[in-house]
Design brief:
eight-stranded mixed beta sheet; Helix Hairpins; BirA Bifunctional Protein, domain 2; three-stranded antiparallel beta sheet; 12 helices; alpha+beta
Length: about 425
């Protein structure tokens, strides 16, 4: 959500953002509604003021004038009774339209309608050249008894997964490794629920646009979240923090859920797109300053790169286009890791700066050094998400005998084990 005053004063800038982000919003209709509301508010205030003046005069008026004033007061009250519901209705309509207003993308973002306009800006590591015929992650799992993918689909449906043996331990080790790395980087550790109320998803920006991606808990007022960011973003809602409390940098771990796990028939095999997953998420609430936001953006990005380098994975960075970055983003960089079986990179992280777009929706505020109450800026990035990262780790680090090397940085979390080995079968 943008400041309505900014929208009034910069309509062409906002229209440009609407066009570049392919948002379905008629800004002229929004501004026309806003003007109507301002006129109605003025009229309502004038009627209320007149009603107050009449009410004050009645006790001092003579008997002849008093009856006329009482009648005038009743007429004014009736008029207010008619005006107020109309005003509330129009304000609700404006609120709905304001939720659709996109954030202004930064000047360096590639302009384009979708991901085909994303721009590669960096590559790290060289994709491995195998001297044997490598297996994809599903074949490795099946060969080594590291999962129950077929059986679990009969229990939980498609896009489900169940890991087994070394791979089950590896998943937990990776999550703890990423969590510890972020704590060492100075982030405050948190665990959060995997569910929240509807207004929390609206404050985050996922509702109304991406409601179809969220599971609703029938019979309650709760929905399952696809990232801890949803809940962290409302942690300080309706509070006024001191400037000294910022920046608040959190790392949270939680189970995550996604109802819409991709286009029909796409990526249904294996661990790429599943309905339930685990994620370690970075989230920052900082002062309303572009330079401060840029500093934290670089920090979140560096954290993610450091983790991928520790996992010994080739990856690249993409500057995300205006049409692909999402409604609320000022800037977004995707990190993609190499998938040998597909001979391409796949997204594993998305680093995003939103300035005050989420903060206005969630009412995240602080009092600055001059005593002025301001909306804060927000940023987020994945630290690590499983099981997707297992796809890259299994395929990139496999050996001819089907074992998989564990990155040195993660070995302490596997009790010093250096390889994932076949799950022993009972005789």
């Amino acid at each position: 959500m943008l400041d309505i005053k900014f929208i009034r004063e910069n309509p062409e800038t906002v229209k440009k953002a609407i066009l570049e982000k392919a948002a379905k919003l008629n800004l002229d209709a929004l501004l026309e509604l806003d003007a109507k509301i301002m006129a109605l508010r003025k009229e309502t205030e004038e009627v209320q003021a007149e009603a107050n003046r009449v009410a004050k005069k009645i006790p001092k008026a003579d008997v002849a004038a008093r009856g006329e004033m009482v009648a005038q007061g009743k007429n004014l009250k009736t008029k207010l009774t008619d005006l107020e519901p109309t005003l509330r209705n129009l304000e609700a309509q404006l609120r709905d339209l304001m939720l659709e207003v996109p954030q202004i993308p930064w000047a360096g973002a590639p302009v384009g309608a979708d991901e085909s306009f994303n721009l590669e800006i960096k590559k790290v590591g060289t994709p491995r050249v195998f001297d044997f015929t490598p297996l994809d992650h599903v074949a490795l799992i099946e060969q080594n008894g590291w999962g129950e993918l077929e059986r679990i689909s009969r229990i939980s449906g498609t896009r489900s997964y169940a890991l087994k043996g070394d791979l089950a331990v590896y998943e937990q080790a990776l999550l703890r490794f990423a969590f510890d790395q972020m704590i060492a980087a100075g982030f405050t550790a948190m665990t959060v629920p995997s569910y929240a109320r509807e207004e929390v998803f609206t404050a985050h920006g996922q509702f109304p646009a991406a409601r179809d991606q969220v599971y609703e808990m029938e019979g309650s007022e709760l929905f399952l979240s696809g990232t801890a960011e949803v809940l962290l973003n409302s942690l300080h809602a309706d509070e006024i923090l001191a400037e000294d409390d910022l920046a608040a940098a959190y790392v949270a771990i939680s189970p995550c859920f996604r109802a819409e796990a991709g286009a029909a028939g796409k990526d249904t095999r294996g661990l790429i797109r599943v309905h339930q997953f685990n994620k370690v998420e970075q989230y920052v609430l900082c002062k309303a300053d572009s330079r401060e936001s840029e500093k934290w953006f670089d920090t979140l990005l560096a954290n993610a790169e450091s983790l991928l380098q520790a996992l010994e994975l080739p990856y690249r960075l993409l500057e995300t286009s205006t049409g692909d970055m999402g409604t609320g983003k000022v800037r977004m960089i995707d990190l993609e890791s190499w998938v040998p079986s597909e001979n391409r990179y796949r997204e594993t992280h998305s680093c995003s700066a939103l300035h005050d777009w989420q903060a206005r929706r969630a009412n995240l505020r602080y009092r600055d050094a001059e005593g002025k109450v301001r909306h804060a800026f927000t940023l987020n990035n994945t630290a690590l998400a499983t099981p997707r990262i297992l796809v890259m780790l299994l395929e990139n680090h496999q050996n001819p005998d089907g074992t998989v090397n564990i990155p040195v940085a993660v070995q302490p979390y596997m009790n010093g084990k250096t390889k994932l080995e076949m799950t022993k079968r009972r005789s």
